[in-house]
Automatic annotation (TrEMBL):
An annotated Gene Ontology molecular function: ATP binding
Pfam families: ABC_tran (PF00005)
Keyword line: ATP-binding, Cell membrane, Membrane, Nucleotide-binding, Translocase, Transport
UniProt entry tagged with the keyword Isomerase: no
SUPFAM superfamilies found in the cross-reference section: P-loop containing nucleoside triphosphate hydrolases
Translocase found in the keyword field: yes
Listed name of the protein: ABC transporter ATP-binding protein
Database matches in InterPro entries: AAA+_ATPase, ABC_transporter-like_ATP-bd, ABC_transporter-like_CS, ABC_transporter_ATP-bind, P-loop_NTPase
Domain ABC transporter: 13-229
Length: 238
């Protein structure tokens, strides 16, 4: 596999003047954005600011919308949502393999389940898994397709605080091992800082703040304050 620095020279996602409107209301207002290959980007913004609209556009899931602009994304894209979207009538491994055939795919599916900590649960039904385990299975399903780009729309939004912390560690570990580009939509400023190398704030249809996170720096408090300020929140520390 190519070293990280080399991967970062290839852009994975390019948006130019991307607009999207619903019922005459502009939600995305001429977004320009480059995401280099292998970069982990978090997207913050108020409820209704257009985060999911942007993610759906990049995923190519918004055929019926009004919009313009140019969009380039890799061929192999996986999407993870807040709910795992596992099919309840298929066992866990069958869910992971959905649409894939053959022994080689099955081997990769088993490996992916082991990677997310679900070895031994291949024949379980989705409703026998906890919420966190279901999200692990959803991650395995996306991994097995070896995505160049992983799109995640609040994937941990429905999980309890402790499970979220474990899932953060897992996602970061999987990203370090496989190095897809990631675009993670979240409401949670701390989740964005813990996970991402770059945090964007969507504001009035545009990228209002584009913050590079230096993971070695002891600057989390400052990042937090800047992101909260961009979201219109001031912290009272008294
Ligand atoms: N298919 C649609 N038809 C009509 N309006 C839509 C559609 N999809 C999104 N919108 C509107 O576009 C705006 C942005 O929605 P979007 O879901 O992208 O916001 P968001 O930032 O992801 O919000 P949240 O954080 O609450 O999930 C909202 O006002 C929403 O009502």
């Amino acid at each position: 596999m190519a070293p990280h620095t080399e991967q970062l020279t290839r852009p994975a996602v390019q948006l130019r003047s991307l607009t999207r409107s619903f019922d005459g209301r502009t939600v995305l207002d001429g977004i320009d954005l480059d995401i280099p290959a292998g970069q982990f980007v978090a997207l913050l913004g108020h409820s209704g600011s257009g985060k999911s609209t942007l993610l759906r556009a990049v995923a190519g899931l918004d055929h019926e919308v009004t919009g313009s602009g140019q969009l380039t994304a890799p061929d192999r894209v996986s999407v993870v949502f807040q709910d795992s979207r596992l099919l309840p009538w298929r066992r866990v491994l069958a869910n992971v393999l959905l649409g894939l055939d053959g022994k080689e795919a099955e081997h990769r599916g088993r490996e992916a389940l082991a990677e997310v900590g679900l070895k031994g649960r291949e024949r379980a039904w989705p409703n026998e898994l906890s919420g966190g385990e279901q999200q692990r299975a959803a991650l395995a399903r996306s991994l097995v397709r070896e995505p160049e780009l992983l799109l995640a729309d609040e994937p941990f939004g429905a999980l309890d605080a402790l499970t979220r912390i474990k899932m953060h560690a897992l996602l970061r570990e999987l990203w370090e091992r496989h190095r897809p580009s990631v675009l993670l939509v979240t409401h949670d400023v701390d989740e964005a800082i813990v996970l991402a190398d770059r945090v964007l704030v969507l504001e009035e249809g545009r990228i209002g703040l584009d913050l590079t996170i230096d993971r070695d720096a002891h600057a989390r408090g400052e990042y937090r304050s800047r992101l909260l300020a961009a979201l219109g929140v001031t912290e009272d520390v008294r």
